[in-house]
Design goal:
Blueprint: E1 17-23, E2 26-32, H1 44-52, E3 59-65, H2 71-79, E4 82-88, H3 92-104, E5 110-113, E6 124-129, H4 137-148, E7 151-162, H5 167-176, E8 179-187, E9 190-197
Parallel strand pairs: 3-4, 3-6, 4-5, 6-7
Antiparallel strand pairs: 1-2, 7-9, 8-9
Length: about 200
C-alpha cells in the first residue's frame, strides 16, 4: 500500500532519485524519494507557483508550508538570499531531503523544521504553499488557520491549488473566514491564490 506524503515517518524503501527544477532560467537537481509529495517529478502546481506567484520579499522570514523535498524553499532562498526561509513538513523524510538539497545548493538561509518545532513567536512576511489537499477539508482548513494567523500584519500567503480539486471553493472559504483573497494567476489547471489578513 502506498503511504501518504503526509505520513510523519514513512517506512517504505526510500528509492532515492534526482528530479530537475527550473526557475529563473536556471536548472537545479534535487534529490527526492518515495514517501514524499511528487517524488517522481516536480509537481506541476509547484512549478506554476514558482513561475506565476509573486516574488518573495527580499528579507524577513518566509515560510514554505508543506515543503516536501524543498523545491519552493530552495527557490525562495535563492531569490531572497537575505531572507530566512523556514521549510516545514510533518514528513521526516521530506525534511531530511530538504536539508540535503539546501546544503547541496549552498543555501545557508534555509531552516527546516517539523511544525511543532517552529518557535511560537515567529511571524512570517510571506507564506508559499502547494497545500496538502488530500488531507481533507477539515484538516486543510485547520492547517491554514494555524499558519495564516502567523502572517505579519502586512504579509500574504500564496497558495497553488488545482482547479478541479477545489481551488475556487478554497477561495470562497478563505473569504468567508475573513481573509482578503484574490486569484492572482491561472495556468495549466491551477489557481494561484493570494490571501492576507484584513486586520
Amino acid at each position: 500500500m502506498n503511504e501518504h506524503y503526509f505520513t510523519a515517518a514513512p517506512s517504505s524503501d526510500a528509492g532515492e532519485r534526482t528530479v530537475s527544477l527550473r526557475a529563473d532560467g536556471r536548472s537545479y537537481a534535487l534529490r527526492t524519494a518515495r514517501g514524499v509529495f511528487s517524488a517522481d517529478r516536480l509537481d506541476l502546481g509547484t512549478q506554476v507557483l514558482l513561475d506565476r506567484g509573486p516574488r518573495p520579499p527580499a528579507s524577513g522570514r518566509l515560510l514554505d508550508l508543506g515543503c516536501g523535498y524543498g523545491p519552493i524553499a530552495c527557490v525562495l532562498a535563492i531569490r531572497s538570499p537575505d531572507a530566512e526561509v523556514w521549510a516545514v513538513d510533518v514528513n521526516e523524510r521530506a525534511r531530511s531531503l530538504t536539508e540535503r538539497n539546501a546544503a547541496a545548493l549552498g543555501l545557508a538561509n534555509v531552516r527546516v523544521a517539523a511544525p511543532d518545532a517552529v518557535p511560537g513567536d515567529l511571524a512570517f512576511a510571506a507564506i508559499y504553499s502547494n497545500p496538502p489537499i488530500h488531507v481533507g477539508k477539515p484538516a486543510l482548513h485547520e492547517l491554514l488557520h494555524t499558519w495564516l494567523a502567523r502572517l505579519e500584519p502586512d504579509g500574504a500567503a500564496y497558495l497553488v491549488v488545482q482547479r478541479n480539486l477545489g481551488a475556487d471553493s478554497l477561495h470562497r472559504w478563505l473569504v468567508s473566514e475573513g481573509y482578503a483573497c484574490d486569484r492572482l494567476a491561472s495556468a495549466k489547471g491551477y489557481r494561484v491564490l493570494g490571501a492576507s489578513l484584513t486586520g
